[in-house]
Amino acid sequence: MLRLNLSDFHRHLANSVFYFRVPMMFYPYLLFLLMSKKLGKACSISDNLVFLITDIDLRHFLMRLNDKNKNLLDRLISKKAIIDNHRPFSNTVLQRLREDWLLEWTYNSNAIEGNSLSIGETKMVLLHGLAIGGKSIREHFEAINHGSAIELLEDMVAQDALFAVSDLLDLHSLILRNIDLDYAGRFRTGRVRVLGANFVPPPPYKISFLMDELFDQLHQDFNELEAPVLAAWFHHRLVHIHPFFDGNGRTARLAMNLILMKKGFPPAIILKNDRIKYFNALNLANKGNYDKLFLLVFQATERSLNMYLNSLPGHYDDYLPLSAIAEEKGVPYGADYISLLARRGLIDAHKEGRNWLTTKKAVLDYISKV
Questions:
Q1: Which end of the chain is more exposed for a tag (fewer CB within 10 A), N or C?
Q2: CA angle, corner 296, sides to 294 and 298, nearest 5?
Q3: Residue 290 belongs to some domain of the structure
Q4: How many CB atoms lie within 10 A of CB 179?
Q5: Whether residues 276 and 330 fall in one domain
Q6: CB neighbours of 138 closer than 8 A, spacing ≥ 6?
Q7: Together in a domain, 171 and 259
Q8: Are residues 328 and 305 in the same domain?
């Protein structure tokens, strides 16, 4: 619990007391929420107005969902419920899904960070142990290491234990195995800059404290927030702390999916083709606006849920390119407008490479609700 008088309010916000660097544009609204008792509490002490704000109050305020993302989250929860009702799955289905995710997750997560292996080359390295001519040794190790990290993550998911800082360090140790032995599985000991980002990571002497604090918040919220919301928030906070010299992005995406999978969701795979959108969403989250990041993570989660559903008897949906859907009888929209609906999360849709896929039913369902 924090006690803030009005003269100190801006100073505390600017110093990230609440674990967020809150933009100045939020100050008047936060003050209004406080005074109207919609956020925290206000009372009078010695004729001074004092605000009592819990960290979780402000965190949950910043993690509110807009209507669009709330509807998308409801759709994710409904799809997960269908999947849960069909458990347990056959080993054949599980093995096929696992191989697909192992390959796509490794390829896309490495490609976001600049690895030049194609998805076919990643498969050759990861699943067949072959070397690719003209590619660096580091790029080979990045593929192998990421596959090993996923295997460790699966073991962690199967354990009935809370996700801990030590687990994160173990994952990071595998990500940098044979690449940077000095700092694999260790927090950074110097300052870093993140090119293209709109924030400066904290100094190294704050990292251990911030990481302990982050995991305390995760454990506090684990059963309070829906998994996709919590996973997206944790991913951003970890990237913002930037605890390692290298491997922050890959490790953060592993951590995000560990949270999802511990709650029974499939992994959310951020696609290489969404790299710019992804970085922009993180930059917006640095300013306190999580809308774009939630949308991106929710859509990635829905794509994996659809892969699950399409493997179930009687639950196959005919996802087609938007141009084909636009030509379906009874669909009044062109491909461009359907694309807009898909990108905004307003219809059931997912991406394969650069192309959006949806169903006629998804478009008609949207029409019936507007």
A1: C
A2: 65
A3: yes
A4: 15
A5: no
A6: 179
A7: yes
A8: no
Write down the catalytic residue from 235, 236, 242, 350.
Answer: 242
Tokens 């999580």 belong to which residue? 290
Q: Is the dihedral of CA 18, 267, 109, 128 positive or negative?
A: positive
Q: Which helix (H) or strand (E) holds 142?
A: helix 137-158
Q: How far apart are CA 367 and CA 347, in angstroms?
A: 10
CA 137 to chain centre: 29
For residues 139 and 211, state if they share a domain: yes
For residue 242, indicate whether it is catalytic.
Answer: yes
3-class SS shares of the chain: helix, strand, coil, % to 5: 60, 5, 35
Domain membership of residue 344 (yes or no) is yes
CA distance 259 to 239: 15
Last residue of a domain, one of 309, 331, 352: 309
Range of the domain at 275: 91-309
pLDDT along the chain (370 residues), means of 10: 44 38 48 52 41 48 78 94 88 89 96 96 93 95 97 95 96 96 94 81 91 91 90 94 95 98 96 94 89 95 91 74 88 89 88 84 86
Q: Is the pTM of this model over 0.90?
A: no
Edge-to-edge order in the sheet of strand 2-5: 2-5, 48-53, 41-45
Q: How many domains does the chain have?
A: 3
Same domain, 145 and 233: yes
**Do residues 329 and 249 both lie within one domain?**
no
